[in-house]
Fold each of these.
Amino acid sequence: MNKEALKNRFYELVSPALPNEWEVDGIVDEIAELPASARELLMSQIPVIWPVSNSLCLSFLEDGSRVIETIPADLVPKWVRAILRRYEQQGLASARGVIVDAGQVFLTPLRKRNLVRFEDVRKRLLFYLRGVSGEDFDIDLDASPHTNTTTYFVPVSISLLNSYQKNQLLYKFLLTLHWGFDLLGTFKILPESEVRGNQLINPGTEVTDVKSPMADFLAGFAHPELAADIFFLLETGRVMRWLRADLPGLAHEVGKLRVDLEGALPAADHDSSEAQLAELGYSILFDQKFPPWISQDPALQNLLSTARADSITKLHELYKILAAAEKSYERPPLLELLGRHDFTKASAEIERKRAVMKETFILHLQALRDKNGTSSPQPGGAAAQDEADQAMAVITETKADYSAPQAQQILDNPEVDLPEELVQLINQIKEDLGHIPPSYFSAAAGVSGAGLTRRQASADGQGEELGGQEGILLDEWDFRRNGYRKNWCRIMEREMPLLHSTFVDTTLEKHRGILLKLRRQFEFMKTNEHFVRRQREGDDIDLDAIVEARGDQRAGISPSSKLFVRLQRNERDIATIFLVDMSNSTEGWVGTVIKEALVLLCEVMDVAGDPYGILGFSGMRRSRCDVYRVKDIEEPYGRRIHQRINSILPREYTRMGPALRYASDKLAQYEARTRLLVTITDGKPEDYDDYKGDYAVEDTRKALLEARGTGIHTFCITVDREAHDYLPQMFGRGNYIFIDEIDKLPMRMIDMYRQLTG
């Protein structure tokens, strides 16, 4: 529209009250420079403002032309109402301030009212994510939304859109989008060799497959940020196709945000790769009506394929178009909002989870092997042998003709009677990798060089010591011969798998009231403070000493000069290790309450500031006494400790003596005036072999005596109703408590610790 036509349009809108022509000319010059959309927005408000005040309207057109492009289109009417309201209340000059400084005066307060803080919606988002996925994920904060496949990262707040509900929906969508990446296998895409060798990759760039082949592949492009963003949008397209099919309600609600997002996000410069990517992004998110430069390219047909591998091919084709005229690249605001892929973190987390699944699989098979014996015949042997025994026979076969596929086939048989946990684990591994690698079976069978192994006991000259290099060898007390069995037990130090659950959050919410009270009480335990009376100098007057001195004076006795009290602070110097029984007898309600007790204990001890560690113990036979690290003494308490407590599960047997010796040694290495070792158990020591009865009790008693000999105080908390029969012999009278009401365990544990250390 030329200036003359614009002037005529203005006169039509304000008629019959026409302003001076010289005023109009200046305003028309300002408006004519605006893009057509911004110009129309500005002109559309003339009929609203002109009848109220001609001067205000002229100011709106002149000053508003400089800021109109910063105001989202859907907020312009609300902005005008704010201007008119200020004009009626405070006059023209104040109303002009709302026009000139629209960002500070109008937009900022508006966004504060519409701002959604993550802390306010965390629980709701967490319940949604865990509910829709059926898995135990966590949510944390980061400037750019992304995921490592275990934790989902979102901004600390969102205020982009013009209502609280819309910003809340945006939070929900961002979480779903990044969960979709994980669900559809974005982080498991591997670049094909022919693509990685393509000429578009910088010839001098070294591409390696250390942890994240995809990250290395993208880094090899001349414009890696551009390549990464193209891939991000292609994968977003796959997620949106899935979203429309499986979560149509959410997809429909998100579809309503297009106008809001286009109005709130700055537009990229025309004819740039940023503008083209933004255009593609809006198409992918909302209508899938692609611009001509895509729809007319035969190589880009079926752009939004459901196949993971297609994203690599389409990336190649799109990159050729977008990078052709690219000199520099800046990320479009739309992509800044949606987030990014962090392949390095995701790959590391995927490998960690695979390592945990592998270890757990091996331990399950080892336990079955021990249960069924290590000398099972080959499949097809004794007629009475059941399918599970046959599977274990194949798995544990270590001859040259060892057949992992045969073992796989047997485990795949639905008639094989395997533990439910193992069946679920097998399904998880197959879902992740497509099969169970042969190395998993060979490791379980004890084949050298194949992951975690368990060596059978080998005899020395006395037939006692364990051979091999793995683990920590410890003595065990044999009361029958009144001597130690040298190197009799092997401690296996194990990392606690990081399983994600709502258990800790639920526990904290359940005991929120009592926790507030406990935290206040434990605050006073940071330092041990007491008054020392009858001092020559001090912090306050000793009233008893004053009264006594006055009496002496009247009696003619020379009074004492020690008339003050002094506050003496003794810094706490206490280190504690909690040794938790993880045997299979803790399954069910008992195990749950023990975990609850640990959560509350950690919370209050973190307030008190006392260093403490948590170890779990279980195992089977002397060749594998497992000790699990839940928390090191110096390790800070936080989400990772939460995850390890979540992961405390009932496992095998209770060989208590070796676990006590290991924990005592750890505690003895820590410098502290007072060192306390607290055992939490539901029963007497017992193992699968001959570690039972008097033998187990006496070995445990000896391990406790060894600990006390190094200055460590030992204590036991038990829920075993028969504890009075054996605990006095092991721990000594007064060094244990029996809790007959299991639901009271958390509070009793805290009271016990306060009494022992207060």
Amino acid sequence: MNKMILFLMVLLSLPSLAQEVIEDSLAVVENEIVPEINYLTINTDQQNSMIYINDEFVGFNKVSKLLNVGEPYTWKVECDMYRLVNGNDTMTSGDAVVVDVKMQAAYGILNVTSSPEENAVIFVDNKHVGNTPLSSVKMNIGQHKMLVFKDEYEPYHYDFEVFGYDTVAVDVTMISNVKNISIKAEDNSDIYVDNEFKGVGSWFGNVSYGSHIFEARKISHKPFSLQANVQQEGGNDTILLGLPTPVYGRLELATIPSGASVYVADKYLGKTPFAENLLIGEYELVLKNEAKADITLNVNIEENETLVLEEKFADSKRVFVMTDRSGDSLFVNDKYVGNSPQTLYLTHDVHIIKAVRDKYNVTNELDVFFANDTVKYFVGKEMQIVTDSEKDKVYIDGEKIGKAPCTAKLSYGTHELKIARGKYVYERTIAVEDDGLKELKVELGKKVTIKTTDKGDKVYVDGKYFGKTPLTKYMYYGNREIKIVRDKELEKTHTITVSDDDVNEYTLYIGQLVTLESTKKGDDIYIDGIKKGDSPLVYDMPIGNHEVLVKRHRKTDVQRLYIIKDGQSHFYFKPAKETINEFIANGMKFFTLNASSLQGKYSYGVSWGSYKKVGWHISLLTNFDIVDGEYHTGINQFLTEYNEIAPDAAELTGKQLNSRLAATAGLMFKVYGPIYLKLGGGYAMYTTLDQAVTEEWYKSSNSKDINYNGLLLTGGLQFNLKNLVISTDLNTTQNFEFMEFKVGIGFSKKKNKNK
């Protein structure tokens, strides 16, 4: 019971005890002294400068760090090629402490040249800095070691010191450390210098001063070696090397049966049993025995060793191998054995036979035990030839192979294909490729269009009626006989060649053979505007109307001929100089330069057009005196208003400008011979302007000056003297305010130069 009462008293006292503990703790915190802090910031003017505060690396270029107020601190800034900058102080309160550091350069400039050779390699303090010529390379202040070297020259050593902002210039004289020597070796042996191959038989080149090993080497020989010292002065410039020493091993070879011929690379060595010393090395031996397959051996002859071999010829078979074309290269098991045809002795095994023709080849397996004595291979492929008829006969290289569709066994390369359908024959060259088509589809014809000068003419092809013109029909390749019939009275037979070219349309005609002849041989003859030849001309003229022009320089004769069957066949022409009416009869084009006058003011322009009996013309005129910008229209009002503001300036300069622009178009009518009447209209602008002292332009108010914008009427005459044109025109307004006279001169030419 007492323990329970005691426990309750303790529980009741815990809150007051806890409150006392908390109050005591707060009192301790209130009495604790918290230190004051501030920022130290350091700025530098150089990239990659390293900043330390209190000997601790803080960062690059610009840094900030918190420090306790009242505590001393140190700082320093390091940068390659610049002097060390440092300082110390005690941190203060208030604004952040900022230290701006300006770095002072601590480098000089190194320039290096070398002679007599450039591009020498430069190291400074074991660091590669470039090749000669070297310029403007920064160096830290202080002592440096430089090494310059180049192949075939002595290394150059140089110690130098750099002071601030100084330029160190070094001119290096390179001293050669090589000598030109000649080396000769007997029996065209390979030449080596210090184990480096130089040449065969002889060599001339540079070798550095000092001791070297010179060798003459040959396969299967011990090298001839010579150690010699190459001296800068004196010594022998020519080194002679003796013969390498041959090294032998021995081969003892027997065969069953004996008497086989032994070959190495087609060189005959002897017959078995064979025993001889051979130079060491690897050999491919070929053993040949009549009526037996060759034996190929790969042997290695070693120094002072004897290789003993015994080989038995296997059972063989004589096989005559050929292809479809002599001269193809033959390979047995990837080994070349000659050109087709070839007699081979092969063991009773399966062999791989390959025949090669140019870029093509075929490979087959041959089981010799079951093979015939003669084996023929085909270097090509099978091709299916298909046409649109089962009656077509197919020929390859002149030999009939059957009727389409059929399978042809074709060798690689080109062949002449011929397909016959009755009397129709189709021929072409085909190429058989390794990766080409396996099926050849042949069309023995194509669609052809027949036209004549008149519609409705009957068309017969090879005697068979096809229809009326114009018509499009399928026709077989080859020469086709085309007969054109018109009204049962007129007919004409033509021969056309249908092929696989781009010609699919033929224009045929029914005509008569005529002779066109002029008074002078060689005159040009044009039929319907197209030159057909020279006089005298025999020509198959289509039935109907035609215009024939015979031309001799500027002399011509034009006749219109009507050709009928069995009509006139001989026509004569007498070229003569054209009259003006004849000259312009077929139409002309012209161009003139014009000039006009209005109140003593001149304008200029051009005209052009075209005419026959009736024509057209266009004309442009201007005096090229155009105001640059806008102008004012009320000069009197302006002068009145301007006098109120600045009376002295409200004056005219006396300069006047007459702007002229006109464009007209119209028709031309033949009056008589070469004279044409011209009528037309258009737009005109006549403006007279005065200039004020302000340099502004104002429309003239003088009634004597012309100011007009609007409709312009024109009329005149044009004289056409063959290629010379002269025109006169009169321009006026709709109410005839003024009259402007215009003249022009120019040239003309025929619309069709052949007429």
